[in-house]
Each structure stands twice: as C-alpha cells, then as structure tokens.
Write a structure and sequence with these properties.
Mean pLDDT: 97
Order of helices and strands: EEEEEHEHEHEHEHEHEHHHEHH
Largest sheet: 8 strands, parallel, barrel
Distance between the termini: 25 Å
Number of strands: 12
CATH class: Alpha Beta
Radius of gyration: 18 Å
CATH superfamily: Dihydropteroate synthase-like
CATH topology: TIM Barrel
Structural class: alpha/beta
Shape: globular
Strand order of the largest sheet: 3-6-7-8-9-10-11-12
Length: about 300
Amino acid sequence: MFDYSTQQRTLEIGSVKIGGRPGLNSTVLIPSLFYTKDKLVLNEEKGEFDKSKTEETLNMLQGLSDKTGLPTMLDVVGPTCIAIDEYLRYLADATDFPLLIDGCDSAEVNATGIMTSMEAGFIDRVVINSLTPTTEDELYQVITHAGLKNALLLTFDAVSMLSSSKRVALAEELMKKSQDVGITNIMIDTGVMDIPTLGIACTTQHLLKNKYGYPVGCGAHNAVSTWKGLVSKFGIEAKTPALVGSNLMPVSLGADFVLIGPAKHAPVIYPSVAMIDAALSGILIESRERPEKPHPRFLIS
C-alpha cells in the first residue's frame, strides 16, 4: 500500500526525525501557539503572553509526546516583528521542540523571525512556514544570508486549488527555488481550505512522496474550521470527533506530519494519531521491519 517508486527521505530538524516510509517513523504533530484569539496572548502587537499558562501548555505537549512517541514541532504564530521575536526567543529557551516561524504571510515578520533565530543561535531548529508562490524575493535573500536550511513549502494557490497535478507542478517550482537559496530540508504542506480540498491535499501528498520522497503533510484541521454546517446541523458535540477525523485522514494515507491547529486540541489528537501509527507499523510485520523506539507501537498499549 505504501510502496513508493522513490527512496523516502528522513530529515532531522533539531531533535526530531521526520519522513520516511509510513509505519517506521512516527508522525510529527505540529500544534499552533499564539494564534489569533489564543488565550495565552495578552497583547498580540507587543508579543506579550501569559508565561505561566504557556509553560503549562508546553509541559502538556511534552507529556503527550512522551506518552505516545509522537514528536512535536511548534507552529509559532506572530502577527508583528516584535511579537515573533518575543515568542521565538522565549520558546527556544523554554523547550527543545523545533519551531516553525509563522509570520502570518508577512515577509517582514518572517524575515525578523529568521534573523532572530540566526542571531540567537538556534537557526538549525527553525523552519520557515511557509514558502509560497507569492513569497517575495527579499525573503529568499534573508534565507540565504541567515543560512536557513529548513522550509515548509505550501503547494497551494487559486489556480491549483482543485487539481492535485497542478499542486505537484507548483511544488516542483517551489522546490527548485528553495534549493537555489540553500534550503536542504524540505517539508511540503499540500494545502487544505475546506472538506473537498482535504481530499485533494491527500492525493497530492501521495503523488509527491511517490515522486520525490520528501516529508509531506497538511493543515487538515482547516476542513473543520471552515465547515459552516457542522455545529448548526449536528451540534457542538460533533466538533471534536470531526477534528480528530480530519487529522487522522492524511496520516492514514501516508502523511509524515500534520499541522493540527490550536495546541488546546492536542489531548484528543495525539492518542488518536498514535493509534493509527501503531496500526500502520503492523503493515511492516510481514517484511520483518520494526520501527525504532520511541514509537507508538511500543508505548500506547
């Protein structure tokens, strides 16, 4: 089921391994911190946040990683240059998790995050989230200057929205451009806006793994956040299982990582993904392959 025509690439970013054949390496989960309306944030312009509650959240995520064997990266959302600087410096000291610089599509904020990471000495632990078809040349220049090696490519735009083949072509363009500026660790986000595009994103991730072998995944939770009829038709109690289901779909189909959305949802998503990882490891029994510890197969029973 997961026999690809290309050797699968396993990357190491910070302390995390990501990629490879499904069932061997654990799925990497990427919760978001400091997003719009995150209760941890006190002043989003100045990057002020509740450090005590943030520490509780980090401890919760570390505990889930330890219990399940699923590695964690953090999507660090910062709407301003001041905010992204404050958040990254704090998290680099407070945790060992790799950090995704998410400057809310602002080239200036993303550039600040990259430069902060370089100047503070943790550039090897950060991933730019993300390089897109509209990323400005100035940001690529900052990447070269800082020596950043890790990038998440978002293979999604208005033209490719409903076509997996067009998303693959877009990924190829972004891969070449990122490699030209020194990016060596490539992760590919196949892009989710709603329920139909979740299916297209999963098709695209399979095509890209088969052709190039880079780690792939998506922000599957967007399918639920844009589902207008969910609560009105099925009630608020349907939201949690829908959220879990959306995150399980790409993992079941071979994703190497999932951007799970707000960190507050981690307690229901980590055990669910761990179950799928343990089940996928069973596919390898006949070929006498075993995942390395720690892996959900050895931890969740």
